[in-house]
Design a protein that fits this description.
Layout lengths: L6 E5 L3 H7 L4 H21 L4 E8 L7 H8 L1 H15 L3 E5 L7 H13 L7 E8 L1 H17 L8 H5 L12 E4 L18 E4 L9 H13 L14
Parallel strand pairs: 1-2, 1-5, 2-4, 3-4, 5-6
Bound molecules: farnesyl diphosphate.
Length: about 240
Amino acid sequence: MDNTLQHIAVIMDGNGRWAKKQHKIRTFGHKKGVEQVREIAIHASELGIKCLTLYAFSTENWKRPEKEVNYIMSLPKVFFSKYLKELMENNIRVMMIGDEGRIPEEAMSIFRQAIKETSGNTGMILNFAVNYGGRDEIVRAAKAYAEDYKEGKVTDLDEESFASYLYTGGLPEVDLLIRTSHELRLSNFLLYQLAYSEMIFTETLWPDFTPEELDRCIEEYGRRKRRFGGVDETESD
Ligand code: FPP
């Protein structure tokens, strides 16, 4: 069965713990985390991955101290001012998923600019999940579908047509989820999309997650047998 790897999603966890281990404040970990975003994005693009979705900020992350939230919201500026040129050189297209409403205007306008500038690129999609929540996404999709139904634009609903109402509509299925820092949960990430994804949970904290470790995850993915609820040909009677 199909084992090609097109879409990798990553829960980039462990920045705070990484910083504490260095006796530094949490934001120091996020700063290093941004460098890893660059490393991993360029590497994934070189490997021919079609889409890399990164969980940068969840709908629950607003509960963090204001200082930390503000710092994280300043990271798009840091990232794109440093690396947009390199993203262009690598033909990478930037996208974003999540509820744009609550994201500070400065961060939003930086994202909009990056999305616009890279919109003609045909290589890997670097997709940032910001103010993203999986349940929120599903509720929004259901509401949008109900509106279209009321207006007579659609009639029937199936899994595929429902998926087109999600933020990820049009993107390839998520083949592989990686979560760093050994937390064994989904934390409201891509709840609908991960139904048949392979999952890898690594011990490594995100700031230490290297391209070599991504290679190892991809090798591990290659060894998995994806059955999508069926049976493997070699195991059938
Ligand atoms: C989780 O670690 C990390 C985050 C909530 C923020 C992740 C954001 C980035 C790495 C930068 C994103 C880049 C752009 C361009 C938007 P944690 O703080 O929960 O770590 P802990 O579990 O050790 O406390």
